[in-house]
Write a structure and sequence with these properties.
With 378 residues, this protein is α/β, with parallel strands linked by helices. Helices cover 43% and strands 13% of the residues. The chain starts with 9 loop residues before the first strand and ends with a helix.
Length: 378
C-alpha cells in the first residue's frame, strides 16, 4: 500500500498564466524524482488559480501517487494543441464572434452567452475525460491530502472566492474582498478559474458568473494559510521586467496593453503577498510563542520557484504553429508576426512551446534540488 503523506501541512501554490503553466509541470517533474514511485504527494494542501488550478486539481486526483499524477500531467501538456483548449476551425471562430456581436441586439434575458473571443468547450471536454473528481474526496478521507482550493473571481460582487474541499472540521473563511466556500470541485470550477478575461467566457457556478481567479486576488497565499499550511512553495510565471533601452518609445497598441494587463493580473499580487508574508515572519521572530498565539499569527516558511524566461520571445518562436484562426485573431488584436507579444505566450497551447517550458521548468528545479529537499524534508 502506498505510504500516506507524513509531511505536515506543506502547501503548493500554483499561479495562473495560460499556456505558461507548462513550466509548472517541469518543476513538478523534478520534485517527483525526489520521491519513490509509490509515494503520496508531499503537499498536504494544493492551491491553484487559472491554469494553475487545473494542474493543482490533477495532483489532487492522484494524491495517493505523486509521480503518477505528475506523469499524467506531463503527458497532457507535452501533447497539447490549441484545439484541445479552444475551438480553432474558422467556422466556429467566426460563429463565436458573430454571436457575441449580435448579443448586443438582444434582450438581456435572451441567453447566457458571455463575451469572449474564444470558445473553450474543448478544454471542458478534456478535463471531464481525464479527471476523476471523486478521487479527491477519497484521497482526503485516506489522509493522502488535506485540502484542495481553486480560486475564481465573482463578476457579481467583485470578490475572490476560493472553492475548497477539505475534512469536515475545516471552516469557511471571510476576509476583505475574499472568502472560502466548501464545495465539490468539478470542471465548472476549473473553467471559471481559468476564464481569462475577454479571451475565454465567464462560467456560471451556482447562481453567479465567475472569471479568472487572478482578478481581484489580493492575497494569493490566503487559501493555503486558511487551510492550515505552515510551509508554502509557490511556482509563478511572471514575465521578467526589463526596460528596453534600444528602441525609441512608441505608443502601445491594443495587443501591448492587453498583454501588459494580463501580466499584471497574473504576477503582481503574488509578489506583494510574499513580501507581506516575509515581513510578518520577521516581526514574529521577535516575539515568543505565547505572544504569537495571542496575536493569532504563526510563522510560515516559504520558498518560491520563479520562471526566469522571456515568455514573449519564446512563444514568438512558435508563432507559425498556431492554427490559422488563432493567428488571424492575434492579428486583429494588433499582434504582428514579426514582433513578440505577451498575448501569444498565454494562448500558445502548441506542444513545441509547452515542451520547451517543461524542460526549462525541470532544469530550474534541478538547480534548486538541494534547497527543495531541505524545504520539503524529502
Amino acid at each position: 500500500m502506498p505510504k500516506k503523506n507524513k509531511q505536515a501541512r506543506v502547501a503548493l501554490v500554483l499561479t495562473g498564466g495560460g499556456a505558461r503553466a507548462a513550466y509548472q509541470v517541469g518543476v513538478l517533474k523534478a520534485i517527483a524524482e525526489l520521491y519513490p514511485r509509490n509515494h503520496a504527494t508531499p503537499f498536504a494542501v494544493l492551491c491553484g488559480t487559472s491554469a494553475g488550478a487545473i494542474n493543482a486539481t490533477a495532483l489532487a486526483v492522484y494524491a495517493s501517487c505523486f509521480r503518477l499524477g505528475v506523469k499524467k500531467l506531463e503527458y497532457i501538456w507535452r501533447n497539447f494543441h490549441c484545439h484541445h483548449v479552444f475551438r480553432t476551425d474558422m467556422r466556429s471562430v467566426v460563429g463565436r464572434l458573430s454571436a457575441v456581436m449580435f448579443k448586443s441586439l438582444r434582450a438581456d434575458y435572451a441567453g447566457d452567452l458571455s463575451f469572449s473571443l474564444l470558445d473553450n468547450q474543448p478544454l471542458g471536454d478534456l478535463l471531464n475525460r481525464y479527471l476523476n473528481y471523486q478521487r479527491i474526496d477519497a484521497n482526503i478521507a485516506k489522509g493522502y491530502l488535506q485540502a484542495l482550493a481553486i480560486t475564481a473571481s465573482s463578476y457579481a460582487d467583485g470578490r475572490s472566492l476560493s472553492f475548497y474541499q477539505a475534512p469536515a472540521r475545516q471552516q469557511d473563511w471571510q476576509r476583505h474582498r475574499r472568502y472560502g466556500s466548501r464545495t465539490q470541485i468539478h470542471t465548472s470550477h476549473l473553467l471559471a478559474s481559468a476564464a481569462i478575461p475577454m479571451i475565454f467566457p465567464a462560467i456560471r457556478v451556482g447562481q453567479h458568473f465567475f472569471g479568472d481567479g487572478s482578478i481581484h486576488q489580493l492575497s494569493p497565499l490566503s487559501p493555503a494559510i486558511h487551510l492550515g499550511a505552515d510551509k508554502i512553495l509557490t511556482i509563478h510565471l511572471s514575465q521578467p521586467g526589463e526596460l528596453d533601452t534600444h528602441h525609441l518609445p512608441q505608443a502601445p497598441n491594443g495587443a501591448k496593453i492587453a498583454g501588459h494587463l494580463l501580466d499584471s493580473i497574473f504576477s503582481d499580487t503574488i509578489d506583494s503577498d510574499l513580501e507581506r508574508l516575509q515581513r510578518i515572519n520577521r516581526n514574529l521572530s521577535l516575539l515568543n510563542p505565547k505572544q504569537q498565539t495571542s496575536l493569532q499569527l504563526r510563522p510560515i516558511d516559504n520558498m518560491s520557484i520563479r520562471a526566469n524566461i522571456d515568455f514573449e520571445a519564446l512563444s514568438h518562436e512558435y508563432y507559425c504553429e498556431l492554427p490559422r484562426s488563432g493567428r488571424l485573431l492575434l492579428k486583429a488584436l494588433g499582434v504582428k508576426q514579426d514582433k513578440p507579444s505577451a498575448l501569444t505566450s498565454f494562448i500558445m497551447f502548441e506542444n513545441g512551446y509547452t515542451n520547451r517550458l517543461i524542460e526549462l521548468g525541470y532544469r530550474d528545479a534541478r538547480k534548486q534540488q538541494a534547497e527543495l529537499q531541505a524545504f520539503l524534508g524529502s
